[in-house]
Design goal:
- The chain is mainly alpha-helical and 492 residues long.
- 70% of the residues lie in helices and 1% in strands.
- The chain has helices at 8-11, 20-24, 38-49, 53-56, 59-65, 68-95, 102-110, 112-143, 154-174, 176-206, 224-238, 254-283, 286-291, 295-303, 310-339, 358-371, 377-405, 417-437, 441-452, 454-462, 466-483, and strands at residues 350-351, 485-486.
């Protein structure tokens, strides 16, 4: 939105005529480094997708689907849909190797305006509020053992959530490699507890505990809206399948590692989710599962006693890892939007010492702390979920559009166009079904907020108002000196 910054040489306090010591130690370019390999890429997808949903609230899918059979089918269908969507993103990510996921693809297919509305909605609401929700889940599980006979006080949960946001943001600001190591560790931890639950379920099934899985389709839901809401809740647990596309520029060999991480990661998550649900039904009836405040903990109390305490511990690990992945990718979206001029320029600057998008990460963390203050943030997210699926649908449509408008682009991965069509149609259904089933004013308020971004777009982005540049230039320069950051270098 504005220009004017201090160049890298002056920030480091030296001229172009450097001494011999400087010549001996060549400096890396001021840009995000390619530090993410295949294992870290898989960990990013799996670790962000598997948060707290499968441990706390698989009951939402059961509630709207009506019985065990439809519930398991919807969990499987959600996994298939996430895989189809991710295959579309594999084509887009290897065709347009820019970070930013949907933002970069919408920009290429539909131009600046649509990309801006996506970045406005996602940077200001969806990413930081999602980060806040995950850390609140972490805080609930972490504080619960200290309040065995009651619910932890809200102020304790919110303070602990704020501490988690500060720690995770700090880790991501310090080092890309450190953040990816943290992600790998917590992904391994959450897969460990899933293996424990699944193995316990298999043992119980071998012992004949299958009564809840027989006559599994008796109370199936038939309502158009109810099935849509069941899919909504299932896909919330699968959300994160597009995370690797936010960091394409930092992937080693993205043409190989991006599609490979998707093909390995998402089916792995699907198998985990279905098997965990089957394990739950071996010890809990549908009514018991619906009445449980935290399903995995109830399962642990029934099956893993006297070591049931490992379940809340590992769920806390799981939520922390998911929050780390969310923070990692959110910073990259703000960074790319700033670089393209859709957000303030300072968000596109990179730490000279750490090679991380420091201002973008701090901005996301500060917004997340503000989002933990309201009483019921979950309501906000539920109403904005339709916007997320609208953008998923537009991205699938972008793939179809670019098959005709950008034929010259190289496509190392090319999916059948019918897959993109299916994803676009399902996205439309998920946007419209809850609104048709239960129209509420909040959906209109969310739409007004999204298009309200145009009030800033035209003067600051489209017309590039001089007064805005003049106002922002000294602020940018002071923040640049304070954080020791510089604009990214363009490397062809």
């Amino acid at each position: 939105m504005e220009t004017g910054s201090i160049n890298k040489a002056s920030q480091n306090g030296r001229s172009d005529k450097t001494g011999h010591s400087e010549e001996k130690r060549p400096e890396r370019a001021t840009m995000l480094q390619k530090d993410i390999g295949l294992l870290s890429g898989i960990s990013m997808i799996v670790g962000t997708m598997i948060g707290s949903g499968i441990f706390i609230s698989p009951k939402s899918v059961l509630l709207y689907s009506g019985d065990v059979g439809p519930c398991l089918l919807i969990w499987t269908a959600c996994g298939v849909l996430a895989t189809l969507g991710a295959l579309c993103y594999a084509e887009l990510g290897t065709m347009i190797t820019k970070s930013g996921a949907e933002y970069s693809y919408l920009m290429e297919a539909f131009g600046s305006l649509v990309a801006y509305l996506y970045s406005w909605t996602t940077v200001m609401v969806l990413k930081p509020s999602s980060f806040a929700i995950i850390t609140l889940s972490f805080a609930e599980y972490t504080s619960a053992p200290f309040y065995p006979d009651c619910t932890p006080p809200l102020v304790v949960i919110k303070c602990l959530s704020a501490v988690a946001i500060v720690i995770i943001t700090g880790v991501n600001c310090l080092s890309v490699k450190l953040a990816s190591y943290v992600q790998n560790f917590f992904t391994a931890a959450k897969l460990m507890i899933i293996v424990i639950i699944v193995v316990a379920g298999i043992v119980l099934m071998a012992q004949g505990k299958t009564e809840n899985l027989s006559n599994a389709f008796e109370g199936s839901a038939t309502s158009f809206g109810a099935i849509g809401l069941a899919f909504y809740n299932g896909l919330w647990a699968y959300d994160g399948w597009n995370q690797l596309n936010f960091i394409t520029e930092e992937l080693k060999n993205p043409y190989r590692n991006l599609p490979l991480a998707i093909i390995i990661g998402i089916p792995l998550v699907t198998v985990c989710y279905v098997m965990v649900n089957i394990a739950y039904f071996t010890v809990m009836t549908p009514s018991e599962l619906l009445s449980s405040p935290a399903v995995a903990v109830t399962f642990g109390d029934k099956v893993l006693y006297p070591v049931a305490w490992i379940v809340p511990l590992f769920v806390a690990f799981s939520t922390f890892g998911s929050a780390n992945g969310s923070c990692f990718t959110a910073g990259r979206l703000s960074y790319v939007a700033g670089r393209e001029g859709h957000m303030v320029k300072i968000l596109s600057y990179i730490s000279l010492k750490r090679y991380t998008p420091l201002p973008a990460l701090l901005f996301n963390g500060i917004l997340a702390i503000f989002y933990i203050i309201p009483a019921d943030i979950n309501t906000l997210i539920n109403y904005f979920s339709f916007a997320q699926w609208a953008f998923y649908g537009l991205t699938a449509l972008a793939l179809i559009v670019m098959r005709f408008t950008r034929k010259e682009l190289d496509r190392p991965v090319k999916v059948p166009i019918v897959i993109a069509g299916v994803v676009a149609l399902v996205s439309c259904y998920l946007v419209l079904a809850p609104i048709i089933d239960k129209p509420e004013w909040e959906y209109l308020y969310c739409t007004i907020f999204i298009f309200g971004g145009l009030i800033l777009y035209f003067p600051l982005v489209y017309w590039k108002a001089k007064w805005a540049r003049k106002f922002m230039r000294p602020i940018t320069m002071h923040l640049q000196l304070l954080m020791e950051v510089a604009p990214p270098e363009k490397i062809e």
